[in-house]
Specification:
9-stranded mixed beta sheet, mainly beta, 6-stranded antiparallel beta sheet, disordered N terminus, 2 helices, about 300 residues, Immunoglobulin-like, about 5% helix
Length: about 300
Amino acid sequence: MFDKRITILIITLALGLILAGCSTSSSNGGELALSLADAPVNEIAEVNVTLDEVQVKRDGHSWETINDFNDQGGEFRINLLDLRFDEELLGQKMLESGNYNQIRLILADGNELTDDGELKSNVVYNEDLDQESEGLFVPSGEQTGLKINHNFTIEDGTITRLLLDADVREILNSRGNSNQGFSLKPTAINVINQVVSGDIEGRVTDEDGNAITDQDVIVEAIGTDISTVATTEETETKNGEIKPVGSFRLRGLEEGTYDIIAYIEDEGTTYQSQTLEVEVTAEEVTKLEEKLTLEETE
């Protein structure tokens, strides 16, 4: 039986919601666009989430629906791991200007089944692990939703873009010793302002130039709480670009200069890469020409 406690320590997940208010001829509002993104998870083949609605709340007002997927023919089910290097638009809508303090996702119950007999929201293990899929739950997710508390402002003629960054090492909790599934904690989601932040994309290999496929390689921006896991399989993006094994993307770094590093901790032995200094530009993806190369440390 695979130890789910270890899974929680090694998995990294990023849920991204981009909120964008754009300039219009109106003097009392802007447009809000929400998208979804994710970072790789090893040991896990799929993290499926089924959404019914996406909503936001303005101070002193009721919840406002940004997108009701039932109006478009049904719920929206997506494997978050398909979005390692991409984003998925969840909806967009003109909003009144003002201060907003919450975002929430209304999820299908983890016990509900799709027409194909699959759990609507679940975690699926890799084939080499002797473990079946398990349900993914949000307490009252189908009623009150996965709530993210964050204050943001929609202003006339300005752009507001937020990234919700969720680390599964904190957000994905086991609900029991076996067959109890996982639950999501919204308090583990960090909100990043994308107007002043960018991403770093690169690749990690060993000394011989080969990607590491049997262990999780953590990539981290030193001095921040932003990290991810290098992929252990080839990945194709929406536009057909092939990302080789060992690729990574650090999302949501505020504009500035960062030192990044990759490492593995394996039963007391540490493998670590050189440190690369990277300049991050807001709203851009900085692609590294130099690879991070792992070597055993003394």
